[in-house]
Structure formats: C-alpha cells, structure tokens
Amino acid sequence: MSTRRAGAHTGGAPVSRRGVLLGGAGLAAMLAVGACGKVEDRSVQSGKGGPWSFVDDRQRKASAKSTPTNVVAQVSAAAALWDLGIKSVGVFGEANGPDDLYGNIDRDAVTWVGKTWGEFDMEKFLGLRPDVLVAPMNTPDELWYVPEEMADEVAKRCPTVGIKQLSTPLDKVIDRYAELAASLGVDLKKPEIATARKDFTAAVDELRAVAKERKDLKVAFVSAAEEFFYWANPEMFPDALILREAGINLVEPDVSKEQDPHWDSVSWEQVGRYDADVLLYDSRNAQFFTDNLKKYPTLANLPAVKAKQLVAWNLETPPSWSIYAPKLQELADKLRSFKAGIGT
To answer: Do 158 and 124 have their domain in common?
Structure first.
C-alpha cells in the first residue's frame, strides 16, 4: 500500500498516503477520554549533561550521551513538539500545504530537509548536526516522509524516534509527544503547557456533553478526489477516535481490511451510500465541497450539504493540546446547533 501524500490522487483507487493517513493495520486499545491529562512516563531523562534515552512506539530505544538539542522532525511532529517548547532546527514533509498543516512552526526559522513526498536531502540533514530525528508512524514501524531506501542511513547518523498515529486516539498521540518533550527537558507543568492541556480536556468534556444531548446526530468524516468519494473509517484516525470515545455518533462505513481499511471509496454515483447529518470534510480537498458542487450533483444533493451542515477538517492537523483545544470546542458548538434526521 502506498504512503504518498493523502491529498493527492491520480485517478482510480487511492494511490496516495490517503490510505494510511493517520491510520494503520489494527485498532489500538483505546484510552478513556477522561485520561487526556495523564502522561505515562516511558522515557529516561538524566538532565542536559547526562545520558538520554527514549523508547519510541516501535519499542526501539533511542539514546545519546547527552540530551538532544538539534532536533529534525517531520512537520507534523515538529509542530507538536513546537507547542511543547521543542523547536526543531530542521523539518521535512509537505512545504506547500494548507496553513493549518504547520501549526505554530516559524517556517522561516527552520531548514527544510525535504519539501514533498520522497524528498530528503541528506547533505542538508547532516549539515544541521542532528541529535535526533522525530517522525510520526502511519504504517507499522515506518517513519513518515523518511524515504524507505534512506531510513537505515538516517538511523546510522543519529537516533530516530517514531510516534505511532495509526489507529491511535488523539489524546494518546499527544501524550506521547509530551513524554518525548519531557525526556528532552521540557517541564510539562509550565503554565502555558498546563493551560493548553486543561483547555483540551475541557473541550473533550464539552464534546461528551454534546454527545449526550445529540444522540440522534449522525456525523461522518469524508474526503473527495476527481475519481472517487471517500467515507472515512473512524477506527483509523486519531481525531475520529477521540470523537467516538466522547460518544459522538459517527458513521462507520463498510471497508475492505485487505485493500484499504481506512476509507470506503465510492464512485460519484454512489456518494449517498450512507446517511449523515453532518459532514466533516477534508479541508485539503475543500474545493469539492465549496467550488465544485455544480460539477458533482450527487454531492450537492446530500442532505448535509443542502442543509449547510458542513465543517472543514484537516486530518493532518498537528497533534497538539493548544491546536486541538479550540478546534474541538468550535466543533462542539457547531454540532450542538445542527439538526438531526435531515436525511430520513
């Protein structure tokens, strides 16, 4: 299965990283959403001058004689760490995506080692004197955006850390970045970090309240490309999982675990295969839900579209308490205002 960029399609079945975006081969054990604020310490950290180690989600131990300071990270991981006080010197990933792909990274203050899928400049990477490389994992044991043929060479040059995102609830993903940041010397009790975590937990609590009030509201994650329309399987995506854990009634499409467990890819004639009152649509391909409706009448005629019960959503939003707290709060407010049963 290809792991190319999840917004890109070349016709036919999805031949992009859409199929593995924030997803994976199995459903991880879900944490109770009430445990959002708890960070399990699975790292060892001995201070800036002492030895450092961290066991990543491949169960591999990254270690160094001293705590790393020169961090190079895939943009999603870099943005997650940035909000925790770890500012990467280098990043790699998609350089020309939507703004919310980068969180709060100062893109002028970092060196780009790679700017698209398959691009990784080893000379630039080594020039940064990297102490550690950090990347999400959206397929088992593979560092996202590190080309497979270069992974071994990168690992020889510096320790690498993989944080699992596939089939893992959002709060769990954020917690792992917090554990990594703590191992790198960050005080998670700092007011700005503690406040962000508190706000995130409050937003999830608000979603719980909405779920109890609006049990009849059917919500779906969807995306689109020129040849196909996609209904997302909630089991595969961190933000979908945390909504489901909060009790939001999510549409669960039929998927093929062998071909692509992440999406039910349907033709444009079959767009209305599932009933949904609300569509959380892929903001990376927003044009299908905003500019191209006349071209796709089956989409335009969906009850949620006709009722304007649409919410733009980026499934590559960096896993950060401070980034997700307002997003989840805004979503809760919108869900509370939407009507249920519009498709029946």
So the answer is: yes
DSSP H or E stretch at residue 163:
strand 160-164
Instruction: Report how many domains make up the chain.
Output: 2
CA dihedral (4, 9, 12, 18) in degrees, to 10, reads: 50
- Which of 331, 339, 317, 314 lies closest to 206, judged by CA? 331
Domain that holds residue 310: 17-28+198-337
Which amino acid is it at 29?
A
Q: Are strands 61-64 and 52-55 parallel, antiparallel or unpaired?
A: antiparallel
Task: Look up residue 86 and give its amino acid.
Answer: I
Do residue 117 and residue 49 come from a single domain?
yes
Say if residue 42 is in the same domain as residue 182.
yes
For residue range 209-257, list pLDDT tens digits in order.
999 999 999 999 999 999 999 999 999 999 999 999 999 999 999 988 7
Question: Measuring CA to CA, which residue among 63, 81, 61, 56 is closest to residue 71?
Answer: 81
pTM for this entry? 0.85
Q: Tell me: do 239 and 321 sit in the same domain.
A: yes
